[in-house]
């Protein structure tokens, strides 16, 4: 316990040290403060930005897109993944194709989405969906395959019904893998939506960041980067926390 | 029908549909230009695409040297020392959740819109997974092997050269495969966003004038690049498959999450 | 491979290979407390003897072996091999055989056997010749080009033994070398090991969990108890050599095994 506390403190110290270094480099003029505004200035700007209604609207837009893409990709991907894992023949046919689709870079198809959907909500959600669904399919397949045959045999030998098997064997066995899949899908999803916003969009936080960059507004740009990073990391840690709470299922 | 035959039929079917659907007008050529018109567009502008490919390849090569060199070096250090590992690894995988593409505007402000900003961005994009994979690989080396080498009087450098490096090769290779794919994505995406050269730039330029066949020709070119790289590394991996047994199966790599290390968008 | 258990009951004259353990102790310091792994252990092993260390998990038998190999430093007492202390591994004096996992999977059997020679820069032809001799000794002639994953568990352990013997050290230390093998293979390997021992006259110190294996192989069985690890009994096994399968069911064998089991049950 003591050791983990030391490590946690050391991590906090590292983060503080990075911010301190950033502050110092900028204050002492080692780097041009116009190219790298100090940490304190950036954080102050971040506070300002969060007060602005336009930035809040952008965040809301991005959040809506992310959630919409997620809400579409996860159930659909899970369903396809489940079907593939449950049917041997289907799996043999589809798996190499999916592996292939999974391993090719998705971002280069972004222009297609603009050609088809134009610039707007549908294009961003569509691309977020497209970036996410393959990982959901793959993870679901892995999750189903992680169910131990022995456990199914035991359940069957005690006369479990289909529903009982589903809820008492499949679900608890799959839960840890599914949670991990959810976390990773969210990373993919967020990256997809933000990229789509940066590439061509009229609103959303990704669009704002790109605009600040084009206009050389370094303070706002860095504040935006810190903001998105903080949101992404918080969400990530949240799911991780849930994962560890459920970790007694593993093994 | 065997699964393989059906799979091949599906692929052929998709290619045929790609040709037929736009031709018959079921899908507008703007959304999906037919296979033949895409290839023709690429062929007609071969010189332009060739030039763009050279720019992109140059950026990819330099970024890969940075990303993979740095990732393998740092991963080896972090993976072999338990204290830094405990300290840093969770922070690094937390950083992995951040959509790194938001850093690209920062690099364009700092380095301009030439190759430098692409190289900086793609290097960072490919660095993390390479480092995570290498650290995991070093970590999973069977301690018995190191103990055995020590019992035979191996010095520290002999243990490094004769045990640690060969035992870590498979994991480093898979790190290279994933990191390298991300480097390609990083370069092309940054070219698509803001730039003045490269395949990504061509794709974006043709997109703004709604020239679908030329957009698709560029997309295809990048796809081939990614697939060629992937195939090449997989081939090396298969050659080195014998090494696979040098690590305790699966352990550690699990921690990073195999999915998390696949090319993101 | 010929399991010739009954070869040469006449050993070559024992050479150097005496092990002296004097009042050895080992304390692990953890953050919260100190754990005494070994306390006041003394042993005298004559050259050419086959000595087996047995005891429940945590009695420090493997720790003691690692200290004899120079792989770990004791916190008290002295260990000498051939009359000199062993502060670090010395392959000229001591060869070590580990559990199954310790062969390098990327090397062939003969490259694995040559490994310790390669470390010291021995020239290739000499290396190859010595490795071939060692492989022949363990009954693996002709298997040199195979990788570990192409060998059975028993064959892998033969390669490990060949690797331990390739520099011809007077002492061979074996840390549960047959623990991962199935019962039949284990018996065969025991006979093989006795044959090799008889042919080479090495001093062998062998760690095991198996009481039967201990009595079957040993000249002398050292029984250890855990927390703190210390020696609770030393049994001379006076069963004639070569040992045979029939001895396992004899009264003398049973009495020895029972005596060890009573010690272990008491301390467990």
Task: Write up this protein.
- The complex is a heterotrimer of chains A (251), B (265) and C (268).
- By secondary structure, chain A is mainly α.
- Chain A is built from 10 helices and no strands.
- In chain A, helix 3 (53-86) crosses helix 9 and helix 8 (162-199) runs antiparallel to helix 10 (218-245).
- The two termini of chain A are 23 Å apart.
- Chain B has 265 residues and is an all-alpha fold.
- Chain B has one domain (34-261): MetI-like (MetI-like fold, Orthogonal Bundle), CATH 1.10.3720.10.
- The longest helix of chain B is centred in the middle third of the chain and has 38 residues, at 156-193.
- Chain C has helices at 61-68, 109-119, 124-137, 153-165, 183-200, 211-217, 251-267; strands at 19-29, 34-45, 50-54, 76-81, 84-85, 94-97, 171-175, 203-207, 220-225, 230-236.
- In chain C, helix 2 runs parallel beside helix 4, helix 3 (124-137) crosses helix 4 (153-165) and helix 6 (211-217) crosses helix 7.
- In chain C, the strands form 2 sheets. A 6-stranded mixed β-sheet of chain C has the order 6-7-8-3-9-10, with helices on both faces. A 4-stranded antiparallel β-sheet of chain C has the order 2-1-4-5, covered by helices on one side.
- With 268 residues, chain C is an alpha/beta fold.
- The interface between A and B is large, with 63 and 58 residues.
Shape of chain C: globular
User: What helical percentage do the residues of chain C reach?
Assistant: 25-40%
Question: Greatest contact pair?
Answer: A-B, 63 and 58 residues
Enumerate the spans of chain C where pLDDT stays under 50 for 5 or more consecutive residues. Answer: 1-5, 9-14
What distance lies between the first and last C-alpha atoms of chain B, to the nearest angstrom?
A: 34 Å
Oligomer: heterotrimer
Task: Identify low-pLDDT runs of chain B.
Answer: 245-265
Q: Given this structure, which CATH class of chain B is correct? A: Mainly Alpha
The strands making up the biggest β-sheet of chain C line up spatially as 6-7-8-3-9-10
Write the CATH architecture name of chain B.
Orthogonal Bundle
CATH-defined topology of chain B? MetI-like fold
């Amino acid at each position: 316990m003591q050791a983990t506390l030391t490590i946690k403190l050391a991590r906090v110290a590292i983060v503080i040290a990075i911010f301190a270094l950033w502050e110092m480099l900028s204050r002492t003029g080692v780097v041009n403060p116009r190219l790298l505004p100090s940490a304190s200035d950036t954080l102050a700007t971040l506070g300002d930005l969060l007060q602005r209604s336009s930035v809040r609207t952008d965040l809301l837009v991005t959040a809506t897109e992310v959630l919409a893409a997620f809400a579409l990709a996860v159930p659909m991907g899970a369903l396809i993944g489940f079907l593939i894992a449950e049917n041997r023949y289907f799996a043999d046919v589809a798996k190499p194709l999916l592996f292939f689709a999974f391993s090719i870079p998705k971002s280069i198809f972004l222009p297609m989405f603009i050609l088809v959907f134009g610039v707007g909500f549908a294009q961003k959600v569509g691309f977020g969906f497209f970036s996410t669904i393959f990982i959901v399919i793959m993870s679901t397949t892995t999750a189903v395959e992680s169910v131990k045959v022995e456990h199914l045999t035991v359940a069957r030998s005690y006369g479990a019904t289909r529903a009982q098997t589903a809820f008492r064997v499949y679900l608890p066995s799959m839960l840890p893998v599914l949670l991990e899949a959810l976390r990773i899908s969210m990373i993919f999803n967020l990256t997809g939506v933000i990229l789509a916003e940066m590439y061509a969009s009229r609103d959303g936080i990704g669009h704002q960041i790109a605009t600040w960059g084009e206009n050389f507004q370094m303070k706002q740009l860095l504040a935006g980067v810190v903001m998105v990073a903080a949101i992404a990391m918080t969400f990530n840690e949240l799911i991780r926390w849930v994962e560890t709470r459920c970790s007694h299922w593993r093994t | 029908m065997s699964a393989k035959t059906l799979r091949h039929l599906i692929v052929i079917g998709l290619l045929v549909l790609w040709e037929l659907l736009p031709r018959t007008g079921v899908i507008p050529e703007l959304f999906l230009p037919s296979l033949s018109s895409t290839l023709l567009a690429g062929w007609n502008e071969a010189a332009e695409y060739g030039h763009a490919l050279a720019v992109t390849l140059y950026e990819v090569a330099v970024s890969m040297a940075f990303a993979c060199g740095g990732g393998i070096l740092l991963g080896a250090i972090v993976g072999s020392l338990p204290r830094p590992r405990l300290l840093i690894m969770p922070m690094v995988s937390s950083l992995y959740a951040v959509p790194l593409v938001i850093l690209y505007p920062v690099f364009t402000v700092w380095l301009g819109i030439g190759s430098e900003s692409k190289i900086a961005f793609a290097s960072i994009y490919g660095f993390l997974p390479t480092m995570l994979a290498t650290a995991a690989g070093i970590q999973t080396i069977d301690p018995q092997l190191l103990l055995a080498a020590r019992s035979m009087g191996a010095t520290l450098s002999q243990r490094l050269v004769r045990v640690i490096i060969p035992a870590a090769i498979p994991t480093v290779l898979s790190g290279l495969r994933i990191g390298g794919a991300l480097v390609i994505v990083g370069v092309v995406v940054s070219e698509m966003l803001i730039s003045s050269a490269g395949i990504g730039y061509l794709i974006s330029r043709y997109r703004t004038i709604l020239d679908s066949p030329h957009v698709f020709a560029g997309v295809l070119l990048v796809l081939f690049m990614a697939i060629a790289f992937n195939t090449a590394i997989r081939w090396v991996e298969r050659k080195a498959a014998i090494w696979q047994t040098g690590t305790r199966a699966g352990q550690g790599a699990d921690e990073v999450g195999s999915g998390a290390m696949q090319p993101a968008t | 491979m010929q399991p010739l258990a009954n070869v040469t009951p006449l050993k070559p004259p024992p050479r150097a290979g005496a092990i002296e353990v004097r009042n050895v102790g080992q304390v692990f310091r953890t953050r919260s407390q100190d754990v005494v792994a070994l306390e006041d252990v003394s042993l005298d092993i004559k050259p050419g003897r086959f000595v087996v260390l047995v005891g429940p998990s945590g009695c420090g038998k493997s720790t003691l072996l690692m200290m004899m190999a120079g792989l770990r430093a004791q916190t008290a007492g002295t260990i000498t091999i051939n009359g000199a202390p062993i502060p670090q591994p010395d392959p000229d004096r001591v060869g070590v055989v580990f559990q199954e996992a310790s062969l390098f999977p990327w090397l062939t059997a003969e490259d694995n056997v040559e490994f310790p020679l390669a470390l010291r820069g021995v020239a290739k032809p000499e290396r190859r010749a010595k490795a071939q001799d060692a492989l022949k000794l363990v009954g693996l002639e002709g298997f040199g080009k195979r990788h570990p994953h192409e060998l059975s568990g028993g064959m892998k352990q033969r390669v490990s033994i060949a690797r331990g013997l390739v520099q011809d050290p007077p002492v061979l230390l074996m840390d549960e070398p047959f623990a991962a093998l199935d019962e039949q293979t284990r018996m065969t390997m025991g006979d093989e090991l006795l044959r090799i021992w008889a042919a080479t006259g090495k001093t062998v110190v062998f760690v095991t969990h198996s009481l039967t294996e201990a009595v079957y192989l040993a000249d002398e069985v050292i029984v250890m108890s855990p927390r703190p690890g210390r020696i609770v009994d030393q049994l001379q096994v006076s069963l004639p050599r070569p040992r045979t399968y029939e001895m396992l069911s004899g009264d003398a064998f049973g009495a020895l095994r029972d005596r060890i089991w009573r010690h272990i049950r008491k301390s467990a």
